[in-house]
Specification:
Layout (H helix, E strand, L loop, with lengths): L6 H10 L1 E4 L5 H21 L4 E5 L2 E6 L2 E5 L8 E5 L8 H5 L2 H11 L4 E9 L9 E4 L2 H4 L11 E5 L10 E4 L32 E3 L7 E4 L5 E3 L10 E8 L14
Antiparallel strand pairs: 1-11, 2-3, 3-4, 4-5, 5-6, 6-13, 7-12, 8-11, 8-13, 9-10, 9-12
Bound molecules: 2-oxoglutaric acid (AKG).
Length: 258
């Protein structure tokens, strides 16, 4: 069964920079995805000691070949925050990456039949521990590595019900239209990757409250972020980013056509 975007959804993506498709996966499917997720997290913990550890703005990172593990800030530095590229640790994730519920809308967005993988990440955001993500765009992270930063659409898979209390995904509606925006200049190491708040309108912020199994497709230039998880509930997400076929993946440089 095809899952291409309707004309209305295409227009919405063009104007707003995102679309939310609710309840795309059943609870049984999401349970399987959560198993893939937690298996990957366990593998990441088991190899974290083998990697090269470094700190940016007091945030702990570990690189193992081209895999990057990002940990929560103090006092939770033992807890993982992000694993990227996640499929390199668990090939089961490739089943999700190739699912037409993800790839057909991406084909519609790119107006292409064939696509490849750019990157994929697991964002953990554990109960009471998971920190937020400041307002940022993805494109400034990728502009120096990608052949074409304008063709890197994302899909965010909600693995848990998410609302304001556990730090649901938030976007600045329409902010993708200006391309790469300037970063902040606050003399921190990572400050340049957070978007200068004078360049977008915070009144256009939308909290994407969504249930587990929902998908959020979003433009690589949209300003987005999320609050910490202050609840007792998990808020796990898997974000997959695609590109036109035959292009090299971020970091590994290998090609993974879908
Ligand atoms: O998981 C989230 O809430 C935000 C993730 C994000 O902004 C990112 O990975 O670029």
């Amino acid at each position: 069964m095809p899952y291409f975007l309707s004309d209305h959804e295409k227009l919405q993506y063009k104007n707003d920079g995102y679309i939310l498709r609710e309840n795309q996966f059943s609870s049984t499917e999401i349970d399987i995805f959560r198993d893939f997720f937690e298996t990957t997290v366990s593998k990441a913990h088991s190899i974290a000691g083998e990697g090269k550890e470094y700190f940016l703005d007091a945030k702990r990172f570990v690189d193992i070949d081209y895999l990057t593990l990002q940990f929560e800030p103090e006092p939770h530095q033992e807890f993982l925050k992000v694993i990227e590229p996640a499929h390199s640790l668990n090939s089961d994730l490739e089943k999700i990456i190739a699912d037409r519920k993800l790839t057909d809308p991406i084909r519609s967005i790119l107006s292409l039949d064939e696509v490849s993988l750019w990157t994929d990440k697991l964002n953990l955001k554990r109960p009471k521990i998971g920190s937020g993500f400041g307002w940022h765009q993805d494109s400034p992270y990728w502009i120096h590595d990608s052949e074409d930063v304008d063709t890197l659409p994302n899909v965010y898979i909600c693995l848990d019900d998410a609302d304001e209390s556990n730090g649901c995904f938030s976007v600045i509606k329409g902010s993708h239209k200006k391309g790469c925006l300037p970063g902040t200049f606050d003399n921190t190491q990572l400050g340049g990757f957070f978007t200068d708040q004078d360049t977008f309108n915070i009144d256009n912020a939308v909290d994407l409250i969504a249930s587990a199994g929902s998908l959020i497709f979003f433009n690589q230039h949209i300003v987005h972020g999320s609050k910490p998880n202050q609840s007792n509930q998990e808020r796990r997400a898997y974000i997959v980013t695609y590109q036109p076929k035959n292009r090299a993946m971020l970091k590994s440089g290998k090609v993974k056509n879908i």
